[in-house]
UniProtKB/TrEMBL annotation:
This is Amino acid ABC transporter permease. GO terms for molecular function: transmembrane transporter activity. The keyword Phosphoprotein does not apply. PROSITE patterns: ABC_TM1. It comes from Streptomyces triticirhizae. It is a multi-pass membrane protein.
């Protein structure tokens, strides 16, 4: 009985192989990994390089006086125009952000009058072009000859300067878009946060300042940075109402020296410099407000470059040691 149990408990694979044992076994063949070839990527790279070479060749043979570009890149009028562009952009964004947050709160209010006024404001300013709004403010003297604020009275032509018309046209238009961005950020915060704050005795204003808005900034900051960069470029429209910003400064100089394309290149370089600087600032601002949502902050471009350099260095050292060992 015990012999039959022993035979049943043995598996077929437990028996040693016949005909010589383990010495006769053939070792398994080494795995040879074949990398996947991405032919589409190489074709795309070749097409991009061909287009870049064609573009370089076209500009190389173009009738452009690059000496004029270098000369006027730091010209006083151009630098002053760039400063005015930056100034009107910052002030318009401040006006747009502050008024946009107010409109977002009004839009979320339970009061139908406040919500209706905010909706009507957003509907009007988002539904009309910025250039039309600039001309409406600049030509307001056709409708109102004087401005009377009680404590201040003046002719509308003297009051509505190109700078003020540009500020109102850009800032009030931006407020409509910022209102929707702020509203989306506020609504992204879980309603339980508000209920918990009210349970602790906070009123609505304190809850909004201390609890809701700090958490909503993670959603509000990225599109706000994009709006700032877009405002930086949209400010070129104010040249039409005689405000001497960067584009108008370049256009004025080109009308005198007839270097139209050269001055357009100068203006383009300045816009690229400004947008690049603020894009870097936007990245670090987003990284700062993302610190409470992620376990670790995302690496900066410098940290990524340093990590890649270390990786390449370690690979080089590994290859060198391997070759020495092989010798």
């Amino acid at each position: 009985m015990s012999d039959s149990r022993d035979r049943l408990s043995k598996e077929p694979g437990d028996e040693p192989p016949s005909g010589g044992g383990l010495k006769d076994r053939v070792p398994p063949e080494a795995i040879r990994a074949v990398p996947v070839r991405h032919w589409g990527r190489w074709i795309g790279v070749a097409v991009v390089f061909a287009l870049l070479a064609a573009l370089f060749q076209a500009f190389r043979g173009a009738d452009i006086n690059w000496d004029v570009v270098g000369e006027f890149l730091t010209y006083d009028t151009i630098v002053e125009g760039a400063g005015k562009t930056l100034w009107i952009t910052v002030l318009s964004m401040l006006l747009g952000v502050v008024l946009g947050v107010v409109l977002a709160i009004m839009r979320l209010s339970r009061n139908p009058v406040l919500a209706g006024v905010a909706w009507g404001y957003i509907w009007f300013f988002r539904g009309t072009p910025v250039l039309v709004q600039l001309f409406l403010w600049y030509n307001l003297s056709f409708v109102f000859e004087t401005v009377n604020l009680g404590f201040y009275k003046d002719e509308m032509n003297d009051f509505m300067t190109p700078f003020l018309a540009a500020l109102l046209g850009l800032g009030l238009n931006e407020a409509a878009y910022m209102a929707e961005i702020a509203r989306a950020g506020i609504q992204s915060v879980d309603h339980g946060q508000t209920e918990a704050a009210h349970a602790l005795g906070m009123n609505n204003g304190k809850t909004l300042r201390r609890i809701v808005l700090p958490q909503a900034m993670r959603v509000i900051v990225p599109p706000t940075g994009n709006e700032f960069i877009n405002m930086l470029k949209t400010s070129s429209l104010v040249y039409a109402i005689q405000y001497t910003e960067l584009f108008r400064a370049g256009n004025t100089i080109s009308s005198r020296n007839l270097a139209v394309m050269e001055m357009l290149i100068v203006v383009t370089v300045w816009y690229l410099i400004l947008t690049t600087v603020f894009s870097i600032g936007q990245y670090y601002l987003e990284r700062y407000f993302a610190r409470g949502n992620e376990r670790s902050r995302p690496p900066t471009p410098f940290q990524r470059a340093r990590a890649r350099a270390r990786l390449l260095g370690s690979r080089g050292e590994g290859a060198g040691s391997g070759s020495v060992g092989g010798v």
